[in-house]
Design a protein that fits this description.
130 residues, mainly alpha, Arc Repressor Mutant, subunit A, 3-stranded antiparallel beta sheet, 5 helices, 3 strands, 11% strand, elongated
């Protein structure tokens, strides 16, 4: 584990996972970004709302956060009928999200490896339940 972080003897920060960005890690935003990465042409607001099971207001707020960080692009179209809003990942958003997914994959890998390698042991002598 320490080797993947470029350390041989010091394991400090091995499980810090600095690549897990709080903006992306929030459950609804993670769903939004996952939906968008699967649709390179983008998604209409209503479709994204349905896919992520969010309300109009909730989706709007999460989109504002993602747009502020330049992770998404928002396009508006006014024509006959209701105005349409198209949301898609920006090029930098795609790179950031894929990097985030790599880091998240490392978390899963580390947890699975530890879970398979170790069984639960008794605490050292002198320790008692709190």
């Amino acid at each position: 584990m320490a080797e993947r972080r470029g350390r041989k003897s010091d394991d400090r920060g091995t499980f810090a996972y600095g690549g897990l960005d709080r903006v992306l890690h929030e459950k609804a935003r993670l769903g939004i970004l996952t939906a968008l990465i699967n649709q390179s042409e983008g998604l209409l607001f209503g479709d994204l709302k349905r896919l992520c099971d969010l309300t109009d207001g909730n989706l709007s707020r999460h989109l504002q956060v993602l747009q502020t960080d330049a992770l998404i692009e928002v396009w508006k179209a006014n024509g006959p009928g209701r105005p349409q809003t198209l949301i898609r990942l920006s090029e930098s958003g795609r790179k950031v999200f894929l990097g985030y997914i790599e880091e998240l994959s490392q978390v899963v890998h580390d947890a699975q490896r530890a879970g398979q390698a170790r069984s639960r042991k008794e605490p050292p002598a002198g320790f008692a339940p709190a």
